Amino acid sequence: MELRYLTAGESHGPGLTAIVEGLPANLELSTDDINRCLARRQEGYGRGGRMKIERDQVVFMSGVRWGKTLGSPITLSIQNRDWENWQKAMSSQAEDRQQGIAITHPRPGHADLSGVIKYRQDDARNILERSSARETAARVAVGALCATFLRSLGIEVLGYVTEIGGVCAEAQIDDYRERFERSEVSPCRTYCATAEQAMIDAIDKAKAAGDSLGGVVEVAVLGLPVGLGSHVHWDKRLDGRLAGALMSIQAFKGVEVGLGFEAARRPGSQVHDEIVQQGEQIRRRTNRAGGLEGGMTNGEPLVVRGAMKPIPTLYQPLQTIDLHTKEPFEAVVERSDVCAVPAAAIVAEAVVAIEVASAMLQKFGGDAMEEIRQNLNAYQQYVQNF
Ligand SMILES: Cc1cc2nc3c(=O)[nH]c(=O)nc-3n(C[C@H](O)[C@H](O)[C@H](O)COP(=O)(O)O)c2cc1C
Ligand SMILES: C=C(O[C@@H]1CC(C(=O)O)=C[C@@H](OP(=O)(O)O)[C@H]1O)C(=O)O
C-alpha cells in the first residue's frame, strides 16, 4: 500500500489542485480540520500583502462522501482569490496576451534565471508562478488529510519555530502543545514568549531595512509505533524520506534528525541513547536520535528540523542583469514576505505527516480504516509482549 500525491496550479492562476491516492476507506474527515491547517499556514508574523487577500479553504472534488473517504482518489481544490486581479496576465487564451509586462530582471536566490534558461522562456513569470511557495497551500491540505488519518490512530504531528534570524528558542514541545490545544498559538508559532518578542523585533528590523530573514523549524511526531520505515534498502529508510520531503519545501537548505549536525561534534557516549526497561515498556534514557535508528522509528518521539534561508525577494533589491541586454539592473520586486518561517513550520508539519502516513500505510496497510486498526492493534499487542 503506497500513498501518492500530485499538486498543480500557478500562484496567480485560478487555484490549486491536489490528488491523493492510497488513503483507506472509512476515514472520517472534516473540511473544518483541513481549513484550520490552511489558516495556520496563513497566520504567521512577517508575511506580505498576499495573505490579506487569500482565505484558503478546501473543496473536495472526489473521494469523500458524507464525511468519510471512499478509498478512491481524493481531489482537493483551493481557490486563489488573487486570481481576480490577474485574469488577463494569467489567461490561458492567446488573444489575452499583453505586451510589456514580462519580468526580465531575475531575482538572485529564486528560480527565475535557471528556470528561464532551462524552459526557454523570455518572461520569468512563466517560472515564478510555479516555483512560488503558493504551492505549499496544496501540500498543507494533503498533510492535513494525512494528519487526520494519523490522529485517528493515536499519532500527533506538531510543527513549530525554534529560530528566526539567529534568535533561538529552547525546545519545549509540551508547552507548545498545551498552548496549541488551547488555541493560543502565537504569531511566531514558538513556545518561548521572550524569544518570540525578539523574533518579532528582528523581523520588523529586517523589514525596515528592506531585507529578509530565515530560520529553523522543528516537527515532533508523538505516539508512533516501533518499526516504521526500514533498514533493508536506501529508499525505505524513513530518515531519508523525511529529509527529502523537508528539503523539497521552497527555501529549505538543511535538515537535521535528532541532534543532527551536533552529533558530529560529540563522542559516541554523548550521542547514543541508552536502552532501559521501564515497567512494561522498552524506552531510551534520552532521545538524541530523534526517534529514528537504522531508518526505523524506535518508539520515542520523532524529532526533525529544517533550516529555511531568507526570502529571496528583497525590497532593497540585489544586483542582477536584464535577460535580453545582459546590462546590470536591480532585481524585480512586486510584493513579498519578509519572513515566512512561521508559515514554513506548518508546511514542514504537513510534509512530515505525509511521509509518516505513507510509512504507516506501508506497514499496516488495508483498504479500510477497520483493517488498518486491526493490523496496528495486533502489532502493538506483539510489541507490548516482546
Ligand atoms: C511559506 C513560504 C513563503 C515564501 N514566500 C516568499 C516570498 O514572498 N517571496 C520570495 O521571494 N520567496 C518566498 N519564498 C521562498 C521561495 O519560494 C523560494 O526561495 C524559491 O522558490 C526558490 O527555491 P529555493 O530557495 O529552494 O532555491 C517562500 C517560501 C515559503 C516556504
Ligand atoms: C502566495 C503565497 O506565498 C507567496 C510565495 C512567494 C514565493 O515566491 O514563493 C511569493 C509571494 O507571492 P505574491 O507575489 O503573490 O505575494 C508569497 O505571497 C502563499 O503562501 O500562499
UniProtKB/TrEMBL annotation:
<dbReference type="GO" id="GO:0008652">
    <property type="term" value="P:amino acid biosynthetic process"/>
</dbReference>
<dbReference type="InterPro" id="IPR020541">
    <property type="entry name" value="Chorismate_synthase_CS"/>
</dbReference>
<comment type="pathway">
    <text>Metabolic intermediate biosynthesis; chorismate biosynthesis; chorismate from D-erythrose 4-phosphate and phosphoenolpyruvate: step 7/7.</text>
</comment>
<keyword id="KW-0288">FMN</keyword>
<keyword id="KW-0521">NADP</keyword>
<keyword id="KW-0456">Lyase</keyword>
<keyword id="KW-0057">Aromatic amino acid biosynthesis</keyword>
<feature type="binding site">
    <location>
        <begin position="130"/>
        <end position="132"/>
    </location>
    <ligand>
        <name>FMN</name>
    </ligand>
</feature>
<feature type="binding site">
    <location>
        <position position="41"/>
    </location>
    <ligand>
        <name>NADP(+)</name>
    </ligand>
</feature>
<dbReference type="GO" id="GO:0009423">
    <property type="term" value="P:chorismate biosynthetic process"/>
</dbReference>
<dbReference type="GO" id="GO:0010181">
    <property type="term" value="F:FMN binding"/>
</dbReference>
<protein>
    <recommendedName>
        <fullName>Chorismate synthase</fullName>
        <ecNumber>4.2.3.5</ecNumber>
    </recommendedName>
</protein>
<keyword id="KW-0285">Flavoprotein</keyword>
<keyword id="KW-0274">FAD</keyword>
<feature type="binding site">
    <location>
        <position position="335"/>
    </location>
    <ligand>
        <name>FMN</name>
    </ligand>
</feature>
<comment type="similarity">
    <text>Belongs to the chorismate synthase family.</text>
</comment>
<comment type="function">
    <text>This reaction introduces a second double bond into the aromatic ring system.</text>
</comment>
<dbReference type="InterPro" id="IPR035904">
    <property type="entry name" value="Chorismate_synth_AroC_sf"/>
</dbReference>
<dbReference type="InterPro" id="IPR000453">
    <property type="entry name" value="Chorismate_synth"/>
</dbReference>
<feature type="binding site">
    <location>
        <position position="47"/>
    </location>
    <ligand>
        <name>NADP(+)</name>
    </ligand>
</feature>
<comment type="subunit">
    <text>Homotetramer.</text>
</comment>
<keyword id="KW-0028">Amino-acid biosynthesis</keyword>
<dbReference type="GO" id="GO:0005829">
    <property type="term" value="C:cytosol"/>
</dbReference>
<dbReference type="Pfam" id="PF01264">
    <property type="entry name" value="Chorismate_synt"/>
</dbReference>
<feature type="binding site">
    <location>
        <position position="294"/>
    </location>
    <ligand>
        <name>FMN</name>
    </ligand>
</feature>
<feature type="binding site">
    <location>
        <begin position="250"/>
        <end position="251"/>
    </location>
    <ligand>
        <name>FMN</name>
    </ligand>
</feature>
<dbReference type="GO" id="GO:0004107">
    <property type="term" value="F:chorismate synthase activity"/>
</dbReference>
<dbReference type="GO" id="GO:0009073">
    <property type="term" value="P:aromatic amino acid family biosynthetic process"/>
</dbReference>
<feature type="binding site">
    <location>
        <begin position="309"/>
        <end position="313"/>
    </location>
    <ligand>
        <name>FMN</name>
    </ligand>
</feature>
